[in-house]
């Protein structure tokens, strides 16, 4: 029996509530598949600040480094908002991304047929949308040097950021793009601005070169402005998208609104150093700690549960079990069960635990 060590970092607010349900689903699917999961919980974010003074205590980081995967909730809240930037709860997540060199961020945007009316786009446009956006997370404009502000001799200032990528940085995220596309419909779209930016010309050349290693995946290149338009005009034309940090930041949010609610959006961040040098992955819902509903038992756990499905697929290579979880979510929604955030007028509403329980029971039935 394979044994996998999973670090569980629920964090603050509804992170605690939704991660508990995701763990229950993982236990159920592990049991059904004959895999053994060892869950170890650790402090991060505001709760960690209260207990230790640090948003990412050393034992938490050590646990993450020695685990096969990390299941993360969310961090932050009004209680810690007054702290200086470096000591804020959100630093816990940023520090983890940095320490583990989590360079590829995967965000699916799936339009569930039964929730199609929650999308701001027309049914005819959005129906059938199933996109994975892969965003480079550690390079580009947000980290490039030089950057800063300097006074101008004649008055005013000059502000600078630098979009910079090296060949190895592009190669590694391109490989993630091709590997993910291989597990989906084998179509990869690389997004850049190669008609204007030199850094994008390098991006395009390197992605094309890596593409030769993946003859079974069809690669095309799209300019970022065209991609932004096409996402709202005909999102079904996309399967897997890979792009640099800034473009990915914007496009993944744009793609996310196609799916309707925050409570439905999972994510994965893949990095370099995990247990025994195995690539490590951090899996988390896109949403935050939702202080307005925290503690009420009404948060939607589906984003966290779908993040657990991504954990199975991308860190543990348990694609069949990931499919099983995703199918269970779909069936429970088809049966008409809704948390408050995705309920239309007149629909029956269930709480966080009940939604978790319904999905666990469906997974158990297989
Ligand atoms: P949020 O995502 O927490 O909430 C935005 C809105 O969506 C709220 O109305 C909330 O009730 C609703 N919502 C979010 N998740 C939901 C779910 N699962 N089910 C039902 N409704 C849900 O964003 P915010 O209010 O801007 O941020 C609150 C706190 O979370 C802040 O401290 C912020 O810094 C933090 N935050 C953390 C992360 C993270 O840990 N990755 C991400 C975003 C925000």
In words, what does this structure look like?
The chain has helices at 14-33, 46-52, 58-65, 91-99, 123-126, 167-183, 198-211, 224-233, 245-257, 302-314, 319-334, 352-365; strands at 3-11, 36-41, 69-74, 104-110, 130-136, 148-151, 157-160, 187-192, 218-223, 240-243, 266-270, 281-285. The chain has 366 residues and is of the alpha/beta class. The protein has two domains: 1-111 and 261-366, Isopropylmalate Dehydrogenase, CATH 3.40.718; 120-259, Isopropylmalate Dehydrogenase (3-Layer(aba) Sandwich). The strands form two sheets. A ten-stranded mixed sheet has the order 2-1-3-12-11-4-5-10-8-9, with helices on both faces. The protein is globular, with a radius of gyration of 21 Å. The mean pLDDT is 94. The structure holds nicotinamide-adenine-dinucleotide (NAD). Nicotinamide-adenine-dinucleotide binds next to α1.
